[in-house]
Write a structure and sequence with these properties.
The chain is mostly helical. The chain has one domain. The protein is built from four helices and no strands. Helix 1 packs across helix 2.
Length: 87
């Protein structure tokens, strides 16, 4: 059963923020608010919870092969396990 819900007393500031967030996510206000409701009541799936960030996308594919190899060499020591820490 699908039910309509009316929200009363939504002030302009809240409405503007909700609309801005919906626009940022590329969806309409109704869909955005329904997703908020599903998340709050624990019905959102794990896939929907995973955030996708694009803030480092501009770096993808910019290293030369030599730069990538130098980086791998420089972090090689991080793969070493200090056995004394596990005793």
């Amino acid at each position: 059963m699908i039910t309509e819900l009316t929200l009363k007393n939504v002030d302009d500031e809240v409405l503007a923020r909700l609309q801005a967030e919906a626009n940022k996510k590329g969806t309409d206000l109704n869909t955005f608010i329904l997703k908020i409701f599903r998340r709050v009541v624990g019905l959102e799936t794990e896939k929907e919870k995973k955030a996708v960030y694009h803030d480092l996308d501009y770096l993808a594919g910019t290293w030369t092969k030599e730069e990538a190899e130098d980086f791998e060499i420089s972090i090689e020591s991080f793969n070493q396990i200090d056995e004394t820490l596990w005793q």
